[in-house]
Design a protein that fits this description.
This protein has 221 residues and is an alpha+beta fold. The protein contains nine helices and four strands; from the N terminus they run H-H-H-H-H-H-H-H-E-E-H-E-E.
Length: 221
């Protein structure tokens, strides 16, 4: 993925402000970390997915941009944040000289990354979905009072390792996780994240691959 394309977006002052404001908003209402770390993770992983699967370089570049901007609308409202994010991204893309076509692809990917209203019509959207849902890890938990953990805090904190593996020859995308079962049982993960994993499966199918998931060396999907 071209660093130049992504760097344009990262360096845009609006992007930084929107991400920071969105993260503060979510912190206030009790959500896990959605700041620059998450933005960069999704950006890099989405580009990596498409690069490994030999999609065109343009697609990997746009996936990087969309991944970085996908949650910026959260400072307006968590509800509908995907649509708010898409329109804020439009402003940033246009002001950095991106074409109408490229801007539209990024808007589509961002607008369709949440479970509530997903329509996958391009590879950038599919990559964003998988990259976003793969970011489950204890580092995202802000609450350090274990006694007051809700199920989302507990499940995220229990995940000590999470990584994506892409096998272009076998056409497989695999999410590998390690969960501390003394903190949270594996069944709790599926209680809150099953819809996300099914969405990853759908996105992987769009990319012409199969999605699988291993937790503690056991294949679950």
């Amino acid at each position: 993925m071209s660093d130049k394309i992504l760097q344009q977006i990262i360096d845009d002052p609006r992007a930084a402000v929107y991400i920071d404001m969105a993260d503060r908003h979510l912190e206030q209402i009790g959500y896990t970390e959605h700041g620059r770390r998450h933005a960069m993770f999704v950006s890099q992983q989405a580009g990596y997915i498409l690069e490994k699967l030999n999609f065109p370089e343009k697609s990997t570049q746009l996936a990087g941009a969309a991944g970085f901007l996908h949650d910026i609308g959260n400072f307006i409202s968590r509800n509908g944040h995907n649509l708010f994010s898409a329109f804020l991204a439009k402003e940033i893309m246009e002001n950095n000289g991106f074409s109408i076509e490229d801007t539209a692809v990024v808007m589509s990917a961002i607008g369709n990354h949440e479970e509530e209203s997903v329509e996958i019509t391009n590879e950038v959207t599919a990559a964003i979905i998988i990259a976003d849902k793969a970011d489950v890890h204890r580092s995202r938990v802000r609450n350090r009072n274990f006694i007051s953990f809700d199920i989302h805090d507990r499940v995220n904190y229990a995940v000590t390792q999470s990584k994506l593996e892409i096998d272009p020859e076998k056409k497989e995308i695999t999410l590998i996780m390690e969960i501390d079962t003394e903190i949270s049982e594996v069944v709790e993960y599926f209680e809150i994240f099953l819809s996300r994993m099914l969405l990853c499966k759908k996105a992987a199918e769009y990319l012409g691959t199969k999605f699988s998931m291993f937790i503690n060396n056991v294949k679950l999907i």
